[in-house]
Write a structure and sequence with these properties.
The protein is α+β, with helices and mostly antiparallel strands. The chain has one domain. Helix content is 59%, strand content 9%.
């Protein structure tokens, strides 16, 4: 879909916020992984030698381990939950940045933000249920590893190796859940904000993170639009707002009404283009193009000085930039940057 010149400030604001949310996601993931590492050490301490084990002791240990696992996953969920309300507010604020002069948008109320976070659904299930599933799965696999090791007379070392593998897998699963939970909160808040301002918006646009790692489904949806009844505009793909899959990095935006649709007797400016080897082409809305429009100082702040220079020198990929792992942002930093 072509992008109107007056929409670029809003697109840039959305991309800037998305980058910072991805940076914050990296920070949250580090905290969750640290908790799972502490859980691993706690569980290993409980493993008896084969000579010390008996049926009653193994059963008692499994029950204790289940409590330990549940406690750590509850803490992990708490770390994520602490971020969701702030992420939702940041996303809502940046959704309405860059509006043409004279247009004013309203944000969701505090109660609406609370509802957005508490009613969060990920692929049809509440976020809390996903955390519970991960905790239950970890407890089940630990119990099996312990029973198998004791039944076969394995050394403590072999049982510990098996537990380490289980925790490593749990860490990867938690990484996806953290990322998707935060992206869900950001996109739910954006959609609620757009719908709340249907006097200046007329629908939704899917903004994809375009790089070599973008999923096929997000490539297909990049820049596509739907009206408020979720009918496709100029295409046939059904409504499925971001995040559309686990670890999705896409973001939903609003489609601004034309000046005349809003009620102003003003014609639309001509579309903005940039020079290229092929002549004049429509301005891309990829993160890469966004970063090229930023000043060096803004690039350094967003990516970190070293990574920004490597990107300018063409030595690292866009994937390495947008996952935020090299320049994480704490919850306090996110609050401070976007506080109004």
């Amino acid at each position: 879909m072509p992008i109107k010149a007056r929409e670029l400030p809003a697109i840039d604001a959305a991309i800037a916020a998305q980058l910072d949310i991805l940076r914050h996601t990296a920070d949250v993931n580090k905290q969750v992984i640290a908790l799972l590492e502490a859980m691993r050490l706690d569980l290993i301490k409980q493993i008896p030698s084969t000579q010390q084990a008996n049926k009653a002791r193994v059963k008692a240990l499994i029950n204790k381990a289940s409590t330990i696992i549940d406690d750590y996953y509850t803490q992990a969920r708490g770390v994520v939950d602490d971020s969701l309300n702030v992420v939702a507010q940041v996303s809502a604020q940046e959704t309405v940045v860059g509006l043409p002069v004279g247009l004013v948008a309203a944000l969701p109320t505090a109660n609406q933000f609370k509802s957005i976070v508490s009613n969060q659904m990920i692929e049809g299930a509440p976020s809390a249920e996903w955390w519970s599933r991960q905790s239950d799965d970890m407890a089940f696999k630990f119990a099996n590893a312990l029973r198998q090791g004791m039944a076969q007379g394995e050394s403590t070392h072999l049982i510990v190796d098996r537990v380490n593998s289980i925790v490593d897998l749990s860490g990867r699963n938690s990484y996806s859940l953290v990322h998707t939970s935060i992206q869900q909160a950001a996109n739910d808040a954006a959609l609620a904000t757009i719908k709340k301002n249907d006097d200046i918006y007329k629908g939704y646009r899917h903004l994809s993170t375009l790089d070599g790692h973008t999923s096929d489904v997000c490539i297909a949806r990049s820049n596509l639009e739907w009206d408020f009844e979720h009918n496709p505009i100029g295409h046939s793909l059904p409504w499925n707002p971001a995040p559309v899959h686990w670890s999705c990095r896409s973001r939903m935006m609003g489609i601004l009404k034309s000046f005349r649709e809003i009620g102003f007797d003003i014609d639309e400016p001509k579309g903005l283009t940039r020079s290229s080897a092929e002549g004049q082409i429509a301005r891309e809305t990829s993160f890469d193009e966004f970063l090229k429009r930023r000043t060096i100082a803004q690039q350094d702040e967003q990516l970190g000085v070293g990574r920004a220079q490597l990107w300018r020198d063409g030595k690292i990929t866009l994937k390495q930039l947008v996952d935020g792992n090299g320049n994480p942002m704490s919850l306090e930093a996110l609050k401070a940057k976007y506080s109004k």
